[in-house]
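Work Package 3 (structural annotation) set out to generate three-dimensional models for the target panel prioritized at the project kickoff. During this period the team completed the workflow that converts sequence records into discrete structure tokens, so that structures can be stored uniformly alongside our sequence database. As a representative example, we reproduce one entry of 521 residues exactly as it appears in the project archive.
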Amino acid sequence: MRLWVLCLLLMVVCSAHTARILAILPMIAKSHHILFHSVLKSLASKGHHVTSYTTIPLAKPLANYTEILLDNIESTDKSISADQFKAVSNLSPIAFSTMLFKEGRRIIEKTFENNKIQELIKSKEHFDLIFLETSFAQEPLLAFGHKFKAPVITLHPFGSFSLINTIIGNPLCLAYVPDFSLAHSNRMTFYERAINSYSILKTLYLYHYEYLPSLDTYTRQMFLDPTIPAVVDMLRNTSLVVSNAHRTVHYAQPYTPNLLPVGGIHLSQQRTPLPKEMKQFLDEAKDGVIYFSMGSVVPDHFLPKEYFDNFINVFRRLPQRVLWKTGSDLKHLPDNVMIGTWMPQQDILAHPNVMLFMTHGGLFSQHEAISAGVPVVCIPFFGDQPMNARFYEEHRIGVKILFSDLSEESIFHAVKMVLNDPKYTENMKRMQHIYNDQPVSAEDSLVFWVEYVLRHGGARHLRPASATMPWYQLYLLDIVSVLLLTTAALITSLYFLIKKIFSSMKRLINSNGTLSSKKNS
């Protein structure tokens, strides 16, 4: 009997460790795939078999990891002009979300045009679990969960995001959790709270009452299946949301059981040797090093010449050496500057001579800066970058420069402010210790909860009732309405009662006065 129980337990364990996992991730932004690759590589390393339909493959092949390239989906950033880029940077949160939805719709239509996706739709394959990114028009992919009768886990490369929160039942917290594209802190003024509330509620209205319903017919047409549930119902049936959030690089906020923050999962604990020339450049920097990178989302090939001239002139005035990641072929650089199209960012930030990180404020760079304890000068452009820049300033671990305010003097002033004030480094080192002080690694947490979903055939029990409650019940508006109506009814009744009493008293007084006058006469 004991042997039978042991064999059964071993079968359960083995089945959890040999799951067939399908991932369909057509997003073209490289930064998104940093999270995707980290998550899927962690699962493949534990013995799970991963099949990934992707636009950006791994740098190196990996055991248990099969990639199918969606090569008909291309980025549009190569054709964008400087004026268009500036226009995007100045969009309101609602307009920015609308733009993302339109771009996402283009991507999802290209995805379903792909022959490999069409073959997958018609296939009789079996998968135990499906990974998707369902933000920005990718929601029709949820129908693969319906087709393969497999639980779905969604990947979310940002921190707090109102659309995700409402779907999974996580509180919105309008008063102290800013919208992802607003440059607000968790201590908002009256005006900022009003803007935050309007931005989030308007976006939610457009998402739930205009955008999601428009996807239902499209999704059923793509899968030739009229029985596919409404997109919003498939969203709410998601077992788990894996988010790039971290309790340190985001303002403190609630997380429901079905929201798993794994921020920092892409960080490597092993240092890779730097290229020889780069290592020598860093090692011999007696006055320290500034590392400068605008990340993978901000293309610098169309930026005006003045942009580069301002930075070069500033670097020429500094005693520190500068390591600059750029795709532009810059000439006549000062001797203290080294450029390259690719930089091993984590290994560079870990070098003891690196004193400052000049960044666009992307979330992955934020994880890496805080994990390495390097203060920043942030030049935000769009998305969550302005909010991340505000986070640096709020915690005094960095300063920001608006792209519209970039000049030689503004850059020089910001750099000298961080380099000359030891508080920025001290505060960042303190935050570094907090960031790295975790009970379990992000990778171990991910693997446990993914295998938890596999063991239980989904995890709908992690979903709070708030995920499916009507909004008027969730925010007690029905109760408030009844109380207001009851109060109004009581006040109205009391008004008419008092009015009737006074009317009766007036008639009584008048009648008594009439009788008295008759007697006197």
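The two ends are 116 Å apart (CA to CA).
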